[in-house]
Amino acid sequence: MRLRHIEVFHAIMQVGTISGAAQVLHISQPAVTKVLQHCELQLGMPLFERVRGKLIPKPEAHRLFAETEKLHRDLQGIRRLAAGLKGRAVETIRLVSTPTLAVSVLPQAMSAWRRDFPTTRCELATHHTGEIVNMLRLGEADFGLSLQDPRHPGIIAEPIAHGVMTAIAPPGTWRDDELAMPLSPCGLQGELIGYADNDPLGELVVAACEAQGVHPTFHTVVQTYQIARSLVEAGGGMAVVDPFTAASSTRIQRRPLDPDLGVALYLLAAGHAPLSHGARRLADCIAQAARACTGAHGAAP
After folding, report:
1. Alpha-carbon span 12 to 49, nearest angstrom
2. pLDDT 10s digits, 157-206
3. CA-CA distance, 175 to 246, in Å (whole number)?
4. Structural domain boundaries of the chain?
5. Contact 185/166 with Cβ under 8 angstroms?
6. Which sequence ranges are marked TM in the entry (predicted)?
7. Model-level pTM greater than 0.70?
8. What pLDDT, in 10s, does the model give residues 243-284?
9. Strand 155-164 vs strand 262-270: parallel, antiparallel, or unpaired?
10. SS3 sequence, the chain?
11. pLDDT tens for residues 26-83?
């Protein structure tokens, strides 16, 4: 199928008639008919049933439409980009982050960045680290944020902030004079909220406990640190979270751990795609916001 075939086919699938497709594409009805006939001739099969002036898609047409819809969206994006370049529009920055960082670090960073880039379009999405890597490799995002280094050969992982994992608990769990005192793994016994088995920071916490003879049992298991913190805020137990999640709430108590469990915030990018000026400045604002969190609550150098 040629590009013109796809445009005409997509328009017919959307409106269901030759006349409607002609209006959508701003061409004549005979031109639409001619392109459709040529498309079906090349494919060697009809795509529509002609019923009382309407075109009823055959099953093959529906299958084809599912794929051409993706291309149609890409073409629209190309047209918008071309129009923007012609009009000297500002760039679009596509950032994908883990859910926890999107809530704990990004709001302050975006607010600071917007002061210098008030009209730049920024598209924010949230995914887990594996999906972030795939999006970067496919060119679907400019850079990503994660608390994990994926150690992928095609991805550059740049640590932009460091901190330590932090124990959090509902208000009143610890005395005020205990809050600055490091908490040993023994102090984590009880209603400790756990993480899914594939969470590397959760595994780090479990390993630290087991190294001191503590074998935690989790009655509640979650996928994100943000959920764990929300449960703690509601009085649903104790948790160990990253420093950024711990710093973004005033409805919990915090204590450092003994021993320290270091964690880094990584900026992820495809090795073949350098960041634009706007994206680099946004990354700098994110780093500053993250360091403000860890600086206030026990940053690691």
Report:
1. 12
2. 999 999 999 999 999 999 999 999 999 888 887 789 999 877 888 888 88
3. 18
4. 3-86, 92-162+264-296, 166-259
5. no
6. none
7. no
8. 999 987 778 999 999 888 899 999 999 987 788 889 999 999
9. antiparallel
10. CCHHHHHHHHHHHHHCCHHHHHHHHCCCHHHHHHHHHHHHHHHCCCCEEEECCEEEECHHHHHHHHHHHHHHHHHHHHHHHHHHHHCCCCCEEEEEECHHHHHHCHHHHHHHHHCCCCCCEEEEEECCHHHHHHHHHCCCCCEEEECCCCCCCCEEEEEEEEEECEEEECCCCCCHHHCCCCECHHHHCCCECEECCCCHHHHHHHHHHHHCCCCCCCCCEECCHHHHHHHHHCCCCEEEECHHHHHCCCCCEEEEECCCCEEEEEEEEECCCCCCHHHHHHHHHHHHHHHHHHHHCCCCC
11. 999 999 999 999 998 988 999 998 887 788 999 998 988 888 888 877 777 777 666 6
The predicted pLDDT at position 242 comes to: 92
Size of the chain, expressed as the number of residues it contains: 301
Amino acid at 84: G
CATH code of 92-162+264-296, in short, is: 3.40.190.10
Architecture of domain 3-86: Orthogonal Bundle (1.10)
Whole-angstrom distance, CA of residue 269 vs CA of residue 92: 16
- The tens digit of pLDDT for each residue in 3-30 reads 888 889 888 888 888 888 899 889 999 9
Residue 81 backbone dihedrals phi, psi, to 5 degrees: -65, -45
